[in-house]
Every structure is written in C-alpha cells, then in structure tokens.
User: What shape does this take?
Amino acid sequence: MCVFCKIVNKEIPADIVYEDEKYMAFKDINPKAPIHILIIPKEHIEKLEDIDDTNKGIIGDMAVVANKVAKQLGIDKTGYRIVINNGPDAGQEVYHIHMHLLGGKKMAFAT
Ligand code: AMP
Ligand code: ZN
Assistant: This one.
C-alpha cells in the first residue's frame, strides 16, 4: 500500500487539516513554503494519465478542497500556488495523485 493510502487508513500519522468522505488534506512532511498542504483523493489513483472522462471531477473536487483549506489557513487573500507533479521529469515521488497547496510567502516560479 502506498504512503498516502496508509495516511488515509490512519496507519501512519499525518497533520490532517481537512477530511471528508472522499478527500483528505494534510501538511507536507518536508514543507517548501510556510504553508504546504497536500490534497489527495482517498481513492488510490496514481497519476494524471489515470484521469479520464469517468473520473475527471476528482480534479475539480481537489481544487474546491484547496480553496477551502486556503481560506481555513488564511492565505486566500494573499494567494497561493497549486502544483501537480506528474511523472519523472516533474519529480513525482509519491504515485498517488495529489495537489500541493503552497503559500504564506512570495514565490518565484521554479522549473
Ligand atoms: P511529489 O514530488 O509531488 O510526489 O511530492 C510528494 C510530497 O509528499 C513531498 O513534498 C513529500 O515531502 C511529501 N510526503 C512524503 N511522505 C509524506 C508523509 N508521510 N506525510 C506528509 N507528506 C509526505
Ligand atoms: Zn495510494
């Protein structure tokens, strides 16, 4: 089972900031910004290639969770960045699809 599925199953701890029936958001263990949250579907979906017309709503739902968490953490007015690392060149480390929510400072655009 992947590390994020273990977090979903509460087999390993995480600092959870949002949870509903289908989604979870928790603090990144190695934050790259003052606020760095990961938003995941509870369902194990590896990568963007596994998103199609039958499940594309998941991406929209994750954006809605990001919006809620940004408000909850007080960065909705100052702004934030949403990132999906997909595949080797993007440096995807965990093959359970996730959105990074980054904020709390001015960020440079990194490639
Ligand atoms: P990515 O490169 O997009 O796959 O990023 C995976 C992210 O997951 C990295 O930013 C890691 O710091 C983070 N991460 C890995 N394991 C954990 C964990 N157990 N709890 C919280 N964040 C984690
Ligand atoms: Zn998983």
Remarks:
- The chain has one domain: 3-103.
